[in-house]
Amino acid sequence: MEALKVWSLTASPLRQLLRLSSSSTAIYGRRSHHSSLMLRCASAASSSSSNAATAETPKPAGRNRRAASSSNSTSDREAIRSIRLKKVEELRGQGVEPYAYKWEKSHSANQLQEIYKHLANGEELNDESDRVSIAGRVVARRAFGKLAFLTLRDDSGTIQLYCEKERLSDDQFEQLKAFIDIGDILGASGSMKRTEKGELSICVSSFSILTKSLLPLPDKYHGLTDIDKRYRQRYVDMIANPEVADVFRKRAKIVSEIRKTVESSGYLEVETPVLQGAAGGAEARPFVTYHNSLGRDLYLRIATELHLKRMLVFEVVVEPKLVQPTFVLDYPIEISPLAKPHRGNAGLTERFELFICGREMANAFSELTDPVDQRRRLEEQVRQHNANRAAAAAAETPEGKAKKDDDDDDESYEVTLDEDFLTALEYGMPPASGMGLGIDRLVMLLTNSASIRDVIAFPVLKVQQ
């Protein structure tokens, strides 16, 4: 029988591709630092949009205007955040939820630019078939009396929103002027028009605030230029520098094409262990960590070669056996810190889990996008953990300590808030939902395997005595 052909996507995919032309049945790279990443990029805002003004930013007078104009100074950021938090409260007071659950869109900005490129200056389409719906981040805004222009950016490009007071109902025009800021994520519907100046626009008949941004975007003239900050806050980097998001789109496409090429040649992709019992990778300095429950040191992988070679003696057998699934719905907020509140039942979240044969297979929920609510929930988790930790320390005795050392529920470790994650939410996250699928457990089900170790090629085990 021919040996199983395997491969692992590493940091050097081109080297792996070149090996396809050889007679070897295994494909590998010398240095592997991480597995593949499939990324769906979020909206990226242009830092060079048309002139944008916002009433929330104080305008210094005189010769010091340029030096004091940056909206990203600490004092300005906090002042703007405070103003926007008040807007969130006012919107909710008016019965408007500033962190929406969903929005149905008909087109992307780039699709509209292509479909209606034939429109002449001053031409407007009023047919029902030409009514469109779009969603994106506001990257520029201008208001003149009863007329306002917003530039909306999604992950494909930009489109202008043409907002007239007479076209909007229920005082939406006043709401737009009072509550919409640069950085907010909007959904808008209306008809298509090209202005007298040649700008393709959506004549807005209705709009909805999908996410209220609490923090200002980087200064539009200077952008986000600090290299270290760009790497640490990539979410801001992709908003301020659209070309960055394009790089990640290309990277995802490259990874996809490599996979197709390798799989079409008869290779099977193998997930080699990230942590392994022995340091590999020749002279490379290993990263060492400690596995508490196994009571042993583990090393971060460097090269996948050795594990891929081991795979050359295995044989794949799949015997699917499906059974009736069970969905558990609407979990309490206390055990669902990242899920949106339930729209119909206070104290619950919009979440479900899928169980098959008593095993959890999938976990899914509407993603929480309200940064204030998210911070409150995480702070409560930290508080509870620290309280349990303090209680355990106070009750500790010499006899109890020996037992505690072997206890998997040891709470001696420290828990802190992920401030960078919370900062990312304050820039505004679009309505989203997510699902995590347990691949290992799914394979166990389909192969009728009794242990998870049966479906992992190289499980981590305790050291033999």
Automatic annotation (TrEMBL):
InterPro entries: Aa-tRNA-synt_II, aa-tRNA-synth_II, aa-tRNA-synth_II/BPL/LPL, Lys-tRNA-ligase_II_N, Lys-tRNA-synth_II_C, NA-bd_OB-fold, NA-bd_OB_tRNA. The keyword Ligase applies. Keywords: Aminoacyl-tRNA synthetase, ATP-binding, Ligase, Nucleotide-binding. Residues 248-459 form the Aminoacyl-transfer RNA synthetases class-II family profile domain. Residues 48-79, 383-412 are annotated as: Disordered. Pfam families: tRNA-synt_2 (PF00152), tRNA_anti-codon (PF01336). This is Lysyl-tRNA synthetase. It comes from Brassica rapa subsp. trilocularis.
